[in-house]
């Protein structure tokens, strides 16, 4: 296990340094947009927020507008640089499944594209729940398996990169033991192969967006064609 975690740490240090520290793509922007809208609707002036799998800390500055932020990731080298940029955020490097937060509880936990890289997803969801106050909220984004498998060419996992995508039904099942699912939908329609590549092409969609704005994209999202599954869930009170 130690060797496995070490390989994962090396991979994510490299990956974050070459991607999230350099640029963000539409998928990330849309996830952040949804989470910001949820936070704006969630009461709590002095809320405490935990971001699990924060990568390069690209979203932490925005989260800090909504409360006190603690953020964790395997990427220790990347987090060291993030701490310099964002001194108001508490960064903790390490394997979330092994980190000891003691009895610390949070009002909101954010986890963007982390679930699919976890070996024991049931244990991961349980630990997320354990660090939330009763009725605290989980705001989670994860890859939408049918869309990625059917309509997108994705390179095979690199050494140290775990990959287990889920579909909407599987995600609901994972969450339901510890959470009441409040919202679950897809965002960011994306495809790079087959007919769906044409349907989502910028050439086709640019004039449509000029006429109707983002309504066509929202329609595609509502019928499950998005790259990402977004879930907002409330922790069930512990008996």
CATH superfamily: Vaccinia Virus protein VP39
CATH-defined topology: Rossmann fold
The gyration radius over C-alpha positions equals 18 Å
Number of strands: 7
How would a textbook summarize the main sheet?
Answer: 7 strands, mixed
Low-confidence stretches: none
Give the topology.
Blueprint: H1 2-18, H2 26-41, E1 48-52, H3 60-63, E2 68-73, H4 76-85, E3 90-93, E4 106-112, H5 121-130, E5 132-143, H6 145-151, H7 168-176, E6 179-189, H8 194-199, H9 202-212, H10 215-222, E7 226-235
3D structure, described in words:
By secondary structure, this protein is α/β, with parallel strands linked by helices. The protein has one domain (2-235): Vaccinia Virus protein VP39 (Rossmann fold). The chain has 10 helices and 7 strands. The chain has helices spanning 2-18, 26-41, 60-63, 76-85, 121-130, 145-151, 168-176, 194-199, 202-212, 215-222, and strands at residues 48-52, 68-73, 90-93, 106-112, 132-143, 179-189, 226-235. It has a 7-stranded mixed sheet, with helices on both faces. Helix 3 (60-63) links the parallel strand 1 and strand 2 (68-73). The longest helix is centred in the first third of the chain and has 17 residues, at 2-18. The two termini are 34 Å apart. The mean pLDDT is 92.
Keywords:
Rossmann fold, alpha/beta, seven-stranded mixed β-sheet
What is this structure, in a nutshell?
Keywords: Methyltransferase, Transferase. The chain is an alpha/beta fold and 239 residues long.
